[in-house]
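Re: the 459-residue chain
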Amino acid sequence: MSMNIEYIGRDAIIDTPDVAFTYQVSETPRDFYKFKTDNNGLDWDNQTSFIGDYLVYPYGANNDLPDIIKKAVQENSMAPGTMKKKTQLIWGLGPVLYTEKIVETDTGNKRIRLTQEDDEIMKWLESWDYLEYLIKACTDFQHIEGVFSKFELSKGSRVGSPFIAKIEHLFPDRTRLASKKNSKSKKPTHAITSECSFGKVQSLSDYKAYALFDFLNPFANPNAVLYSNFYSFCTDYYTVPDIYGSLEWLNRSTSVPLIFKALSKNSINLKYHIISPQAFWDKKESDIKANCVKLGVTYKNSMLLDYQKQFLEKISVVLSGDENTGKYLHTTKSFTVEGTNLIEHGWEIKVIDQNIKDFVSAQISISQRADHALSAGLNLHSALGNVSESGKNDSGSEQIYALKTFLQTGIDIPEMIIMKAVNYALKVNFPKKKLKLGFYHETPEKEQDISPKNRLINT
């Protein structure tokens, strides 16, 4: 039987002469953790591993939360744009040097920022490309609400005046908090960095260790790492980002474009949408690797792909006969009882109603609900994230109100975390100047409050 498979990422559209179906690999992170460990997805504090002479604190139940968030965001149609929009809102008109001052107003004292220029500080900032560092720091904050930075002292600091030469951005998937094995401290004392993600085995041998930055003794080490983050309730080491709770909605909305593409190609005989658990393929990959060891051959990724193609062909044979569908569902479903919870971790085969109009409407509703859930999870008003009801545009006044609210309540803490490393370096390098670095924003005004010649439509 001839079969055509069109892969879209790890998902696919399968087309045979008798039946066509869409196929999706599901990896809902909180459920998937149950396949990998016996621990709850948020119970990281008591899980540690050893790398060399260091006790490493994992980021996520399987030390791969940054990788999971990266994959879920980048495979989604809306999430990357929403993240970028929020980064742009925090960035505003860019970073500026400023001092703070208390002034009297009719309604009482008010703290304001006075922007300033300083050639000496700007020369230092530009020497290590502070703009690129800040863009990366903003991006990291939007995804995981934390930033890893490495301080590097000037080479003459040991004999001359100590000075922080530059600040380097560290990738969150390649950096972990750690302690010496014999450390008596219950808090991390070091950071471990690797050239690859900690989700890969290579990170165990290819790593470097740095002391954490000491605010009381900033020049104690030639290189030191600072982790600035938004504290998560009852979580010791890392932040659990807001997007974590929206990952299931991300996976839901990601599958909708796949279904629509299949419908446009196979609108007549598209009958099923199949969802398989990632754990199934992880187990199969382990079995194939074990078999390769027995046979003395080298494992290749193509072996798993070949198996998947053969497996999908068998599925297509089964699904081509309607009378076999129930039997197939019965043999592939499995359940596990954990305490009082009944957890299903089998396959799902969803019959697509041939009433295409109702089916499409249902999928659109799922997609829209997922978009709104993501916008709420990221704490971004729908008017700012371009997530409005279908066919409607948010009014200009609603957008201005949302932006003003965001600037008043959503900027200060993120800016403090993103700028923490830079501002502390400014404090110790230039103590007499008392300048800070922050993002500059202008308060938006309604068009009717602006003179006609200066309105947006005329500029």
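Residues 28-40, 455-459 have pLDDT under 50 and may be disordered.
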